[in-house]
Task: structure prediction
Amino acid sequence: MKRGIYYVMLCLAVFTAVSCNKQLDIDPIDQIPDAKFWSTERDLDGAVAGGYALLRKTLVESPKNSNDDNGYHPRFYMYGDRRGLIWQSYTRDQIRDGTDAAIQKNRLRTEWGGTRQWDDILFNWAPFYQIIEQCNIVIENAHRVPDNQFFVGNTRAQYVAEARFLRAFTYFYMVRVWGNVPLVTKTRTTEKLGRTDMNAVLDFVEKELKEAMPELPNSYSASGKNAFRATKGTAQATLAHTLAWRHKDAEAVTYATQVITGGVYKMLGDSVPDPTKPMGYLQYPNIFKGRSTEGIFEIDFDAATGEFGRNTSMANLTLFGTQWAARQEPLWAISYTSANRTITRMTNLTMMFPEYQKDERYRVLFTRSNSSVKPNDSVFVKYASVVDPTRFLYDANIIVFRVADLVLLRAECNARLLNYAAAREDLNTIRKRVWLPPYTGADADLYLEIFKERSRELLGEGHYFYDLVRTGFLTDPDYTKVPTRPTINQADFTDGAWTWPVSNKAFVDNPNMEQMRYWQRY
Result:
């Protein structure tokens, strides 16, 4: 009985008691409550699973209004998509007016720092350090499980490798949000840490992923673990993204290729339909329900276990009309920024999908609503695997990495390397999959076209803002290339304007903590 209780305690210990390191909100565990806990493989597996559970809880966390279950600003989609202004509030923001204007002006701290839930949640990195603490616990205690407790095919090294992967992934994710972050690699950290330079953190991430990779399986015999627990492909995909973030493009191409050609994952595709006949069953939408062969790393939401979509899923944010949700208009809408820098709801989706007459994505991911209030508005049905619209129940996983993402990432890296033929081939692989002809534009325009293709293919998957940063389009002075983005110039970017400010909680009793220079001004 004690061991069963400790499975929960190990996942949640960091949420209880008084922290001895308030700046990171890490609760050091001075002793294992049950001396026999680390006695079986089941114990170790449960401890690793606890890390994934904390990751899931952290990525879907959102500010909420009192007496309202809706998560209007979930971390995963706020950091990755909404910050880039490709989504906006449909009418008015349910948490606070002026959200989109604050994002566009990049005044998150001066205009939102006093909003408790933004400071407590979106600015707050403490939950990510709780994931890291969980991983550190596993790494430091895995040796206590006796050798004879492991089943055939499983090893202690595999579980340690999973913990090292999850810790590395968490640090990579944090760097993309906050830039410089404290680097913690041991449990019971009580030092008053300052921020570690992001390049040193990413050096650590690269090293951890490369060393963990050989011990990870290609796939799991238990299908319930695939895409949700670390594999070689998961580590390779994370490493490819980490390297591309740093413009180590040749190496990024190598690791992306290992995923693409490894034989474990493959893109789902459909034949071009006969225009004289109704479209039959299509594979492409199954990607976004989750657990497809295209998914490399996902956060699982399974309606069968009573997981409600209104708890911060993209399905809940975008679906409306009685067929899909018990509301008559969406919470978020696709947006664009006009030439005069005005944020505008995109009512004509052909702006994003100029080849809409042929593009499968336009044809199957959007449809007219059956809303009594907005009957002519388009519904974004990418995540419309509806189980019960009245209770907001959806099968709609968070797709962190998938094969098409890696194909287009490889195209982007090759374009930066001026390997235009290889970049064009990958771009056309994605275009062909969605029934489009090969791209015939000039090599000089290829880099921008790959960015636009990622915007279309990965719409609503938490990539857009990171793509703006990585490609350099975030600060391009020519707004005609990519108009939909916040206003950030190169000087401010250098001072950290692309990051998020750090919560006031990080400064409690810690003289070594500081904001990035930009957020000291704003």
